[in-house]
Design goal:
mainly alpha; two-stranded antiparallel ribbon
Length: 146
């Protein structure tokens, strides 16, 4: 709807006072008290988190919310899980192992293509897209929904 439209010229003057009334009307007492209480809780949490470097904040797995936990416990659980599953390894150097994995995968696919074990179309389908590749991340969060 453009401003030169007749409906717009008629609607905007009627809409302006309605919006003004909505935003200038004071909050009901009950809602105002709740907003103040939640504001104080947020401020208290901010101060607590600034004073305590051992507290860690993470987004929860499913749903919207946050998990607050002890940093040393989270690190211990992460190490324990990594040792138990051997599925993850920490990237300590600046070098990303993703390029090595991609190169070795490409070499195996080329070898299979050369031996005519797979077709060119199968090779292209199995070869990963470099633009969408990403290393797996380990999130050691408790399942909040269970």
């Amino acid at each position: 709807m453009s401003i030169t439209d007749e409906r717009a010229k008629q609607a905007f003057p009627e809409l302006e006072p309605m919006i003004h009334d909505l935003y200038s009307k004071p909050l009901p007492v009950k809602l105002y008290r709740r907003a103040r209480r939640e504001y104080r809780k947020v401020k208290h949490l901010q101060k607590l988190l600034n004073r305590r470097p051992d507290i860690i904040i993470r987004r929860i797995d499913k749903g919207e919310g946050f998990y607050f936990g002890n940093k040393s416990i989270m690190e211990y659980n992460t190490e324990e899980y990594m040792n138990k599953t051997e599925a993850y390894q920490e990237v300590t150097t600046g070098r990303c192992p993703l390029s090595d994995i991609l190169r070795s995968t490409e070499a195996v696919l080329d070898y299979l293509l050369k031996k005519k074990a797979i077709s060119k179309a199968q090779r292209d389908k199995l070869l990963s897209n470099v633009n969408t590749l990403e290393l797996a991340h380990l999130y050691t969060l408790p399942k909040m929904h269970k």
